[in-house]
Amino acid sequence: MMEYMRDAKRRIRIGIVGAGSHSYRNIFPTLTYLPVELVAVADIDLDRASATARQYGATESYASAEEMYAKSDIEAVVLCVSPQMHPALTIAAFKAGLHVFMEKPAAMVADEVAGMIAARGDRVGVVGYKKAFMPAVRKAQEILAMDGVGPLRSVVGTYPMSIPENGRKVLDEREATNWLANGCHPLSVFLEFGGPAAAVTTHRGKNGGGALIIHHANGTIGNFHLAQGAPAFQPFERYVIYADKQSIEIENSRRLSYQRGIEFAYATGTSFAPPGLAGGAIVWEAQDGLNTLENKAVFTQGLYGELAHFCESVLASQPATIGTLEFALDLTRVYEAALLSEGDTVEIRQGA
Ligand SMILES: NC(=O)c1ccc[n+]([C@@H]2O[C@H](COP(=O)([O-])OP(=O)(O)OC[C@H]3O[C@@H](n4cnc5c(N)ncnc54)[C@H](O)[C@@H]3O)[C@@H](O)[C@H]2O)c1
Fold first, then answer.
1. What residues contact 41, with CB distance under 8 A and at least 6 apart?
2. Is residue 304 classed as helix, strand or coil in its secondary structure?
3. What is the CATH number of domain 135-290?
4. Is 104's C-beta closer than 6 angstroms to any atom of ligand 1?
5. Does domain 5-132+299-330 have CATH number 3.90.226.10?
6. Residue 179, SS3?
7. 20 to 30 A from 322, CA-CA: which of 106, 129, 162, 191?
8. Distance between CA 131 and CA 127 in Å, rounded?
9. For ligand 1, mutation pick of 52, 69, 82 (most atoms within 8 Å of CB)
């Protein structure tokens, strides 16, 4: 049950590390819908930290996260810095006894995610792979878990993206590419539905674009179309999830269609819309007619969901179940294997 910050009976005392672009545009404004008390802001740009702290009623600002961890009376931190910095800042926070929410991507390579898991202890750790939390994905998961639906067989997703060549160099030199920054968004949808991957194969088109084939360990196959060259800001993102004789489509994060199939007789059927309401599609779509919350981007894209799940886990003293560090490890392994594939199938190690 959602609680406005001002109404929450128990508020988690938080500090935010990183008051840059994403943080200022999306994280800070979302706090108003969460059971938190913003105590401190840390940013290596102290003026920025102080100005943002003042604006949001936080009484403390710091030029260093470590100083904030040591001096501030906080229970949890929200890290919104960069995948280069998240592992070190997270491990230091866990060592200081703090719960950690970090923005995506968790790290530059999978070993760094394993290091965060090793340092976590009984603290809550959540990574903001927002698409795993978006209402359309949560609804699709609810449908897939219903009696009579499934089993899941395959997922196809389209996202404007490419996977760089020279993947070995990208990994060795810790290059920050778009595959790192944004590839994790569609990958998080594939892994949310299909679970950990056992192998991946990258096929690169000669003129750009391509496909990433994801063999999930549970037998589901993922087909990630790398739609490099798609026009910007067109409705470019789409997923279709195929279960047995049923499918679910997610378009533009805001529209979910559940296709239940239609009774059909090949040689004798005379109507595409036979009587009854058992077949056909059920459609849910965010509407922009009212000043409500559910149509705002921080809700439709999962920003609220990821932070709310973090707060719920902290308040219940329970490990997170979505966007976990284990999920981040599985995802980062796919990120790495896709870079190394060059057309060959790369097996992926399972487990810790
Ligand atoms: N979920 C999304 O849709 C989404 C969108 C954009 C960015 N992001 C993520 O948010 C994070 C930040 O991205 P951004 O675009 O806001 O970057 P940014 O460069 O605008 O902001 C980063 C901020 O961190 C500060 N900083 C850098 N090193 C620091 C340190 N060691 N300690 C404290 N502060 C430090 C910088 O001064 C800056 O203010 C990245 O991980 C990025 O992937 C997520």
1. 15, 16, 19, 49, 50, 52, 53, 56, 58, 60, 61, 62
2. helix
3. 3.30.360.10
4. yes
5. no
6. helix
7. 162
8. 11
9. 82
51 lines ligand 1 (CB under 6 A): no
Q: Give me the residues paired with residue 17 across strands.
A: 42, 79
**How many angstroms separate the Cα of 258 from the Cα of each of 177, 248, 254, 352?**
35, 5, 13, 35
What is the structure's pLDDT at 160?
94
- Which residue's CA is the closest to the ligand 1 atom numbered 34? 43
Q: How far is the CA of 249 from the centre of ligand 1 (A)?
A: 32
With a 6 Å cutoff on the Cβ, whether 176 touches ligand 1 is no
**Could you give the CA distance from residue 115 to residue 106 in angstroms, rounded to a whole number?**
11
pLDDT surpasses 80 at 352: no
pLDDT value for 235: 78
Torsion of CA 307, 312, 317, 321, to 10 degrees: -70
Q: Please, are residues 107 and 327 in contact by the beta-carbon 8 Å criterion? A: no
pLDDT bucket at 40, cuts 50 / 70 / 90: very high
H or E segment to which residue 126 belongs:
strand 125-128
Is the pLDDT at 93 greater than 90, yes or no?
yes
**Pocket of ligand 1, candidates 27, 81, 178: which has the most ligand atoms within 8 Å of its Cβ, to mutate?**
81
Structure confidence at residue 349 (pLDDT): 87
Compute the distance from residue 114 Cα to the ligand 1 centre, in Å: 22
pLDDT band for position 28 (cuts 50, 70, 90): very high
Ligand 1 centroid to residue 156 C-alpha, Å: 30
Q: Where in the chain is the domain with CATH 3.30.360.10?
A: 135-290
The SS3 of residue 76 is strand
What pLDDT, in 10s, does the model give residues 282-295? 999 999 999 999 99
Residues spanned by CATH 3.40.50.720 within the chain? Answer: 5-132+299-330
pLDDT tens per residue, range 291-325: 999 999 999 999 999 999 999 999 999 999 999 99
- Residue 163 contacts by C-beta under 8 Å, 6 or more apart in sequence? 179, 183, 202, 204, 210, 212, 226, 338, 339
